[in-house]
Specification:
Radius of gyration: 19 Å
Number of strands: 6
Distance between the termini: 58 Å
Largest sheet: 6 strands, mixed
Number of helices: 5
Structural class: alpha/beta
Helix content: 25-40%
Order of helices and strands: HEHEHEHEHEE
CATH superfamily: Phosphoglycerate mutase-like
CATH class: Alpha Beta
CATH topology: Rossmann fold
Shape: globular
CATH architecture: 3-Layer(aba) Sandwich
Length: 171
């Protein structure tokens, strides 16, 4: 009886260790190329769709991230970010959850919560909010805003055993 209780306790401890040792991965990217030629488009005040290059880039993300089993997809509530995320969401049979860029601190805290342990989460944002979110996850100011002409960069942020690392990549 005592050995059975000890074995059960050891099993629970090992299970807890495995949960804590899981790597959580965040793939954070800027939306694909937006259409800035639309009649009356005001760059920051409007909500332009993707242009044809952006649509092609969004489709290419399916192949780019096919080796990642994505568990959750987040996007800001803009046409260009949702359209960038849509092909991956469709390919992986996931819904796109909306996050508020005005509450990035809260969103970063939510992403780092234990409920996301072991998951891979894709987040589509903007030239300024994506690097800012990476910095919030890292808890340090490491990355600067992207230039408006940069659409081919993304970050892989990993969290394991309380250690968070980020790597900026190109595709």
């Amino acid at each position: 009886m005592m050995i059975q209780k000890l074995t059960s306790s050891l099993f629970i401890l090992l299970l807890a260790y495995q949960v804590n040792a899981q790597k959580t991965k965040y793939i954070i990217l800027r939306h694909a190329e937006k259409d800035t030629i639309l009649a009356n488009a005001k760059m920051m005040a409007s909500d332009p769709p993707l242009n044809s290059i952006g649509e092609t880039r969004a489709l290419s993300l399916v192949d780019k991230f096919k080796g990642h089993k994505i568990n959750q997809i987040y996007s800001t509530n803009y046409i260009r970010t949702k359209t960038t995320a849509a092909p991956i969401a469709k390919a992986q049979n996931l819904n796109i959850a909306i996050y508020d860029t005005r509450k990035l601190d809260t969103f970063a805290t939510q992403l780092l919560s234990s409920e996301n342990s072991g998951k891979t989460i894709l987040i589509v944002g903007h030239s300024n909010t994506s690097p800012k979110l990476v910095n919030l996850l890292l808890k340090k100011d490491q990355f600067k805003d992207l230039d408006e002409s940069i659409y081919d960069s993304y970050w892989i942020v990993t969290s394991k055993n309380g250690k968070i690392k980020a790597k900026m990549m190109k595709y």
